[in-house]
Each structure stands twice: as C-alpha cells, then as structure tokens.
Amino acid sequence: MKIIKLILLILPLFCFSQEEKIKSLDINLTNYEYPFPVQFLELSNQRQYLKMAYMDIKPANYNNKNIVLLHGKNFNGAYWETTIKALTKEGFRVIVPDQIGFGKSSKPDNFQYTFQQFAENTKKLLDHLGIAKTAILGHSMGGMLASRFTLMYPETTEKLVLENPIGLEDWKLVVPYKPVDWWYESELKQNYEGIKKYQMENYYDGKWNADYQKWAELGAGWTTAPNYSIVAWNSALMYDMIFTQPVLYEFKNIKSPTLLIIGTRDKTAIGKPLVSEQIRKTMGNYAELGKKTQKAIPNSKLVEVPNTGHLPHIESFDQFIKPLIVFLKQ
C-alpha cells in the first residue's frame, strides 16, 4: 500500500518534468540566440512603428545569387540553420526574415495580417539590402507568402521554391468558419505536451528525436511567458489570415520558374478537428496535392520526398537540399 502511495506521489513529477525543463522565452526571443547575427529593419505599418528581424548571410565565395527563406506559422528563421549553411557553402547569399508577429520581430497588439502586407515588408527588406533579384523559398505558411510575393513582384522573383506549402486547398469550402476569438482561446491552451503531440502526429508520423525536440521546445518556450497572451492573439489573427486568404486560385498566374519539394507523407490541414471523419480523410493529402499544384503552376517541377512529412528540410535534409541546389544553379 505504501509503495502504491509513493508511486502516486511521484507520477505527477514525471508528467511535468519535461514541461519544467522548457526555457521560458520572452515574446521577442531576446533570450534565445539565433544561429547567425540578427539585424532589424524599422517599418511603418498600419500607423505603427515595428521592427522586422532578419539574418543576412553573405559568404566569402558569393556567387552573385540570392535566396530568401520564408518560415512557416509554427516556426521562425532559426529553423533554417542547416539550410543556410548548405546554401552559403555553395556561394548563395541567404536572407532570412522573421515576419511581423514571429520570432524576434515585433508583436503588435492590433494588426490586420495579410499576405500582401507580409510580401510588401519583405520587399522593403530587399530594397533596404539593395537586392533587385532573388530566389524565394517558402515553407508551410511561408509557401503561401512566397506565392503572394511572386505574384506581386514577378520582376524581383528569379525563381520560386515551395516546400510543403499549406493552402494548396481551400479549407473554407469544407471547414466551418471560427472567429479570431475562438482561435485565441485555443492558442491560450498551448503547452509543450500539446505542441509535441501535434508535431509528432502531423509532421513526423509518430517519430521523435533531438532535432524535432529542439523546435518544439522553442515554440513551447513562449507559452510559459507572463505575456504569452500577446503571442496567442497574434497567432489567432494569423489563423484567420491563412483561412480566409487562399492563393491557390492564382497559381496559374505565377511566371517564375518554380520547384515544388513535397514530403508525400504530410497530412497537414487547418480545421481537421472541426469536420467529420469522412471529410477529414480528404484534407491535407500532399501526395495528391503536390501533383495537382504542379499542373496548376506553369513552368513548374515537382520533387517528391517519400516517407517524409511536413518538414523535409528537418526530417530528410539530403533529399531536400540536393534538388534545391540543382534548381538554383540552373
């Protein structure tokens, strides 16, 4: 009996041990070090003065080619570390912004998030750096932004790369709309265990290792901050942006040579818990969506990465980086 009581006393300590190890991060990640020096561009958006963080890595063997890496919704510029190192080794100048509301950039209290605003801010950064032409690579939500940027600034976009972009289907056709307040309440409940569970199920097919752990801990670090509600509110606004601003209907207008890198095991889709199991099975089928999107975008090429989920540049790096470098050098 005493042993059972002891186990019951100790068990909660094991359940919360990982949560307690999570480093608390402030909302602008000032206490988190990025893999390369971070600079800031001052912006005036919507009657607010904001700061956009970015990394600009120009190698000694610069080949006069540039590439912008655009992060996904659940990430920031730091997760491109391995990609940056591989691209700079090949001579590419790599620019990696944190969009407003993400990473080390400003978290406004009141902001209308649009992909057009993100694209305009990214163009301002390129103008600030004196970069007239560049390749644009977007992952996940960054793929929606990369597509919008390419449509707005075709003269700037030499090449477009989409790595498991979301928004390859219009979720509002099948998923009931939820207001920003609903998303906000959902985001307030985030913690390490929830983030790990979501990523393990949706990104890695039940697998887990130190690399995956690192990025889950980074996201979870915010949730322990006293003013996490600001991050949660910005995140809720972005969910609304993603849900209501599809770009897939304009794929036919993309003029830049395009490479799709698709992890075919990916099943990512927004709103799955809100629909029936029958509809859920039809959502986020990247093995089919990749092929469909390649047909929709003129002058595009599809590279499928088998047995890989939502993050090929994390889960299957060699299979991601090799076709990327070949495409950029063509």
Would you write up a description of this structure?
It is a single chain. 40% of the residues are buried. The protein has helices spanning 2-21, 81-89, 115-129, 141-152, 180-188, 192-202, 210-223, 228-244, 277-280, 286-296, 312-315, 317-329, and strands spanning 39-45, 48-57, 66-70, 93-97, 134-139, 157-163, 258-263, 300-305. Helix 3 packs across helix 4, helix 5 (180-188) packs across helix 8 (228-244) and helix 6 (192-202) crosses helix 7 (210-223). With 330 residues, the protein is an alpha/beta fold. The chain has a domain at 27-171 and 247-329: Alpha/Beta hydrolase fold, catalytic domain (Rossmann fold).
Compact overview of the structure:
With 330 residues, the chain is an alpha/beta fold. 42% of the residues lie in helices and 16% in strands.
CATH architecture of the domain at 27-171 and 247-329: 3-Layer(aba) Sandwich
Distance between the termini: 71 Å
**Unreliable parts:** 1-18
- Largest sheet features: 8 strands, mixed
Structural class: alpha/beta
Please give the order of strands in the largest beta sheet. 1-2-4-3-5-6-7-8
Rg to the nearest angstrom? 20 Å
Overall pLDDT metric: 93
Write the H/E string, N to C. Answer: HEEEHEHEHEHHHHEHHEHH
What is the name of the CATH class of the domain at 27-171 and 247-329? Alpha Beta
Q: What is the H level of CATH, i.e. the homologous superfamily of the domain at 27-171 and 247-329?
A: Alpha/Beta hydrolase fold, catalytic domain
Tally of alpha and pi helices: 12
- Indicate the CATH topology of the domain at 27-171 and 247-329: Rossmann fold
Shape: globular
Give the helix proportion (percent range). Answer: 40-55%
Strand content: 15-25%
The total strand number stands at 8
